[in-house]
Task: structure prediction
Amino acid sequence: MNLLIDVITMNFPYASETVCIFMAIQGSMAVRNGPNRTNSMHWFHALLRSTLTAYAGATFTNIFMGRPTKMFSDDVFFGSCLIAYGIVNWLPFDIGYHFFNTAFGQLSYTVFAQIFRVGGVTGFSDAAHNAFKDAPSIYYPTPVFGPILFPTMLGNIGGFFWNGFDGYLEKGMPWLFQQGLFCSTFYHFYAHDAEGFVGVALRSVLKPVAVQVMMLMGAQDEKESEDDAVFAKIAVGFFMVFMAIIRMPQLLGPRFSPFVAVSNMVRDMINGKKKKVNAKPGSKKNKKKNQ
Result:
């Protein structure tokens, strides 16, 4: 595969360490530019808030599946939080904080933090599918909701943790829910649903294109070019990274959502047709009176 694909799929040296540090930097910058903008918060308070801003999902989501949290089982995670907090808050002249407030700095942690999330969506979907695949419901041959909801919750635990249930959802479906549901649904059905009609139909439509795309991206052989899980991860990765970039404040901003834009467009088209149907031409008498 080419370099771009290797980066998105985390197929490069020290990939886990790299994306974990940038994810932690994003959390530290969110706190430093938000609750700690005056830099008056106690360092321990700021450190733990930065840690949970970045890794609330990694800290708590595995509990739903009875699995150990990565914050305890993998030293890279909390170690990254310590390093990132030091870079953002303790370097001389605040050089780390000022660098990551530049457009290039924001782009760097946005891209690599999103690559971390790509691995989370695909990895947690894989974990849920492997846990439930031997006991699907009687209605469908593949477990449906677990491999979709588990990775979706990964990206939204932080929102619930900091804002509360009603506070997080009162303005509608948050972007991380939209992204998580869309990406985990596509990945799950394309990569895991070998027998169900959804997965079969999805692959029958996309497989010819997927094989060509994989060959263009540098697939080494026919087997790699037809790997459904790899293609699904690449597709999800491109979408998530692209959306993270265009939703930066310098571009379309964090309020932009392609799903909301499309739904609004469809709604306006439907409402426009209804208005045309309901519009009644004025009578001749009314026209004469108006004249």
Remarks:
- The chain is about 70% helix and 0% strand.
- Residues 133 and 290 are 72 Å apart (CA to CA).
- The chain has a mean pLDDT of 90.
- The first helix runs from residue 3 to 8.
